User: Fold this.
Amino acid sequence: MDNAFKEKIKSFILEGVGEQPVAARPDPFWQKLKEVGTELWLDTGDMEEAEKNWSAEMTALTTNNTLINKEIQKGIYDAFIADAMDIVKELLKLKIYLSKWGNKYGSKEKPSSKS
Assistant:
């Protein structure tokens, strides 16, 4: 994969990541659980819910396919998915091109422009 394409993927993934972190507020209930050795993880696919419920005692934010699917059904990822599909299509075109014409490690050569 060429560097320009890698940079395109990287910028797509990092788009909007410059947001400020959520200010974690302490919670006495969760603090008591943490003091007895409980590691607290918030499990959700809803980032607004995560923001409302996150506390200073929590270790990690996790999700799973079912929780993310609930968010996808709301339509909030529609534009993201469409944009990701465009990038994947470009990657597939690149893969097809390389399989047809080879790459710097392959033995196939590009045909001459002279016919």
